Amino acid sequence: MASISLHTNHTLPSLLHAQTPKPTFPQNLSLLAKSSQSQFHGVKLSNPTHLAIPSSASVRSSIVAKVTEGTQPPAFTLKDQNGRPVSLSKFKGKPVVVYFYPADETPGCTKQACAFRDSYEKFKKAGAEVIGISGDGTESHKAFAQKYKLPFTLLSDEGNKVRKDWGVPSDLFGALPGRQTYVLDKNGVCRLVYNNQFQPEKHIDETLKFLKSV
C-alpha cells in the first residue's frame, strides 16, 4: 500500500495563534471634566481639564498617613493670608487645630471655613488655635478670609509640600486633595486625626468634642 507523506512548515499551535493581535491599553486613563467649574466638594476644574488616574501602586503609597495619633508632625513655616511667615512652633504651649482643605471658594471648603468661624469662640474657650491650610496662594486666602470674615489663620502651602510631608491622603484616585483635620496638644503631639471629605462641617463637631473631652 502506498504511503502518503504530508510536509508542512506550520505546527497546529502556530496556526491557531499566529498573528493574533493583543489588545493594548494606555497606562494612564483620564477623565474629562465637562463643566467649566465643578460643584463637587472642594474641587475647581477649568474646561477642558484632564484628571489622570494614577496606578494602583501610587494610590496605595499616597494614602499612607505619616502623621498619626501619638506622633509629632513635621515642622513648617508658611505664609498666612497677609503674607507673613507663620511657624508651627509658634503655637506650642496650647492646643492647635490644623485642618487641610482642598481649595478656597469651593462649596465644601466654604461650608467648613464658615463652620469653624461660627464656632471660633468655642475653640478659644477650649484654649485652642485654628489653622487652615490649602495649596492656594496668599492673595486667594486673603480674599477668602475677608469675604467670609474668617477670624483664624489661613496658610498657603503652594506646591503642597506640607500636605505631602504630613501624609494627608487624597480622594478620587488622587484627583481631589484630601480634607483632614489634626488636633495637636500643647506639646505639639498629634492627639486626633479626623478625615471626612463629604461632610466638611463634621470636622468642627469632632474636634470640639475631642477638645472638651481632654
Q: Are there runs of 5+ residues with pLDDT below 50, and where?
A: 1-40, 45-63
Please give the number of β-strands: 9
Strand fraction band?
15-25%
Distance separating the two termini: 102 Å
Structural class: alpha+beta
Catalytic activity: a hydroperoxide + [thioredoxin]-dithiol = an alcohol + [thioredoxin]-disulfide + H2O
GO molecular function: thioredoxin peroxidase activity
Subcellular location: Plastid, Chloroplast thylakoid lumen
EC number: 1.11.1.24
Write a structural description.
- This protein has 214 residues and is of the alpha+beta class.
- Helices cover 28% and strands 20% of the residues.
- It contains 7 helices and 9 strands; from the N terminus they run αββαβββααβαβαββα.
- The chain has a 7-stranded mixed β-sheet.
- α5 (138-148) links the parallel β6 (129-134) and β7.
- The longest helix is centred in the middle third of the chain and has 12 residues, at 107-118.
- The chain is globular.
- The termini are far apart.
- This is Peroxiredoxin Q, chloroplastic.
- Residues 67-214 form the Thioredoxin domain.
- InterPro entries: AhpC/TSA (IPR000866), Peroxiredoxin_BCP/PrxQ (IPR050924), Thioredoxin-like_sf (IPR036249), Thioredoxin_domain (IPR013766).
